[in-house]
């Protein structure tokens, strides 16, 4: 027998290096906390969602605002620095982003959604631009945490000089393409938690915490047709997160717990539905809701027509 | 911290045994300027790269390095994302020990390092800098690029009976005889044309072809230049980019004011620009990548460290030019003005991986061929490998296993693995790897081995088997989709036959499953009834991708999702559908391809043109190219299974036992060799035109390198599998002469 040539040999056990997973704070950690089953399919296993209309709104808001920041900073060809974008230029930027998204098969679900996006972008530019744009230090600011079993990454929409006190201290701004959730809504709690994690990552990178985080709910700037345009920031548009050591510590503990839960699911290659079903907004757009154990009977089978 | 202090910290890490050889330490101490690191198999190059990075990041006040290098000024590329993550993880591990000994170094922010594949870094930087030529661009993979060309390029979409025959005849080597040959009374089919055009477009970029010069050559070259420009225009109009164009766009970016700042620094004021460029696996680089690296290292003293082994170059078929590695010194002269004799060369010849007999065998194998001694075949004056690992003992480390027939050989192979496992010679079946040139499960390739392993109770792991659509869940759900959309195959094209074959297999699988799963059967029946009852011309409420998810919620597909492998296959299926649905519809920019509508003229049926396109394009691509099964990027092979891999797949890996098949492989020239020669007539940089040997010789060199890679993966034993008279046929896998292998191995 061929193997007998090797009967005096014993291969020494080796452990090939295991590459640590990389987690994104928003798409992995927050996504898993929202629904581990949905995350398992789309975030881990790589399913492509059937509908892209959901991503239209958030993407177009973020990308047009990013262009506004670069416009003011003079980073767009032909635009002198410290110039405010006009409504017409917002239309142009919106059109650029929309055309590209359309070419990729991503569209607004209807004309009303499209118009709402344009309106809130112009309102943001009108209400916040003069105050905010000059303070912007960086956009799409990257943060990273090197943990023993994984690497965590996050991107802050805007890093701005502190508006209130020490200008050397920074604010982090995060744009949300939604209305502001209620105070007790777990979605808002998750946003706050996310800001606390950013704060800790920011501290480990720069040595100090940011002054505060501003969660900006751009949909609060919407005014229905026929009503006068907003000229000032409505109070509900902003939720300010003031950091305390306890809040951050609690956030980091939750964060580690969530990351460990993800690792456990990865090891077991199983992503059970959460014991408590997520909110309807999460489930209504989920492609795997039809046989979800957490929502049994809630979504009867649907037919193509 | 100086270099000796750095090495002391690393040497003190328990269980790590960081002891550098003089050759390795010489790399770590490379002062500045270009460095040419010739790293043989198993020579510890990843570790050396890591320590070199640590030196750049943490060393100061040393004769070699006065000050620490800002992390954002270091650019490192690896061949795969996994290799990049591995490098990052090693770096993080060592960093912890370094800052324990030198807490003040904790401020060095290694997250600012640029580590990744070249494509990944190009993509990241173009996005980060909002490069105008990359705003909101969708980066297309191979499937999407092919679909895009198929649907949009004029020469594919429309036949021109006057102009096209001459064009395709000019590039006839891009087709197999089965696909098309000049003189036939028809033109190549659309998929064959697509694949040919994609190959031409990618090579124009990879080989740094001067399109203006190509146009001036007139004739078919002019036509190709026109088609290339049409393609570039289509990409721009549809906000898309492919992987070759990504490199070109990055090169354009480097020449823009934003790119110049990235290279030279200045904004923000403390950004110093790119100061060090490190490239792993340089032997598989191509001319456009070479240009990128040389541009990145454009600032004096041109700190460009390339690490690789020309003997392990394997990617000519995908545009790689081993000549970039072999003539790195000439590239430095051409781009950086540095005389060849000045380039520091660092051989790393100690092999820590393999039994000494394997090391000797690999040396003898690669140097035994006279072709390898030709100028330009290898880096000049390359030393032989020297065994330096801890594996030693008296067993047939280099062996052959013979079978009377292919079946007999497969059984003997499986029996050998079974014996190694049962007798605890290996710790797990995954320590025995079978390497083949192709792992498709056909009788000439992996099928007999797969069956033989299963017959002795072992489970093979063969993800690159091109058998994605041979699994019951993928076939079954495709069959269910077709049962809803076109149950009678009314729009199934008669040709090419492969499309019909796959659709029929899928339908058969659905017909087998449906009676066993009433919910599925009822669902499909009800859906069809609803079509029949609906208004002609009505849009469906669900797009193509949604219908897939509806089906996935039904038995047996819902239960099959408990199995991770099946679930990931279904995930891959959704990726394919999304790619297909995202494709622009020519002349209808606001129409989504995934949207479905009933025919006005054919009640209860989906619009015929949609179905035909789905068959031709979606099913057509799958049958034309085949799809690999899913594989786990995070593990080499799951425990408990026997890995079956292509030799390309095994790059960078090692296994205790390696079995190598296809002992009678012959060196064949292919389209890659033809294109290399053809495009060499139009170089953007005439100083980088290679004096290559003849195509037949290049094909032989490629095969020698491929088997060198396969043999050098083994730690304890390498076994060449052969049957009948294969070993005496004088083919390359068996060495330079008909008797070479007999004299260099022991029969089992």
How would you characterize the overall build of this protein?
The complex is a heterodimer of chains A (305) and B (748). Chain A is α/β, with parallel strands linked by helices and 305 residues long. Chain A is built from eight helices and six strands; from the N terminus they run βαααααβββαββαα. In chain A, strands 1, 2, 3, 4, 5 and 6 form a six-stranded mixed β-sheet that branches. In chain A, a hairpin with an 8-residue loop joins strand 3 and strand 4 (170-176). Chain B is of the alpha/beta class. Chain B is built from 29 helices and 17 strands. In chain B, the strands form four sheets. Chain B has a seven-stranded parallel β-sheet with strand order 13-14-12-15-16-11-17. In chain B, helix 12 packs across helix 13 and helix 23 (544-552) runs antiparallel to helix 25. Chains A and B meet through helix 3, helix 4 and strand 2 of A and helix 4, helix 18, helix 22, helix 23 and helix 25 of B.
SSE topology:
The complex is a heterodimer of chains A (305) and B (748).
Chain A: E1 22-24, H1 25-34, H2 36-44, H3 53-72, H4 87-103, H5 111-132, E2 136-146, E3 151-161, E4 170-176, H6 186-206, E5 212-217, E6 238-241, H7 245-268, H8 280-284
Parallel strand pairs in A: 1-3, 4-5
Antiparallel strand pairs in A: 2-3, 3-4, 5-6
Chain B: H1 3-11, H2 22-28, E1 35-39, H3 45-58, E2 74-78, H4 81-101, E3 114-117, H5 118-128, E4 138-139, H6 142-152, H7 154-157, H8 164-170, H9 190-206, H10 211-216, H11 219-237, E5 240-241, H12 243-255, H13 257-264, E6 276-279, H14 287-296, E7 304-308, H15 322-326, H16 328-336, E8 344-348, E9 350-351, H17 356-368, E10 386-387, E11 398-403, H18 406-422, E12 432-436, H19 447-455, E13 459-461, H20 472-485, H21 497-513, H22 518-533, H23 544-552, H24 557-560, H25 564-582, H26 608-625, E14 641-646, E15 655-660, H27 671-679, H28 695-711, E16 714-723, H29 740-744, E17 746-747
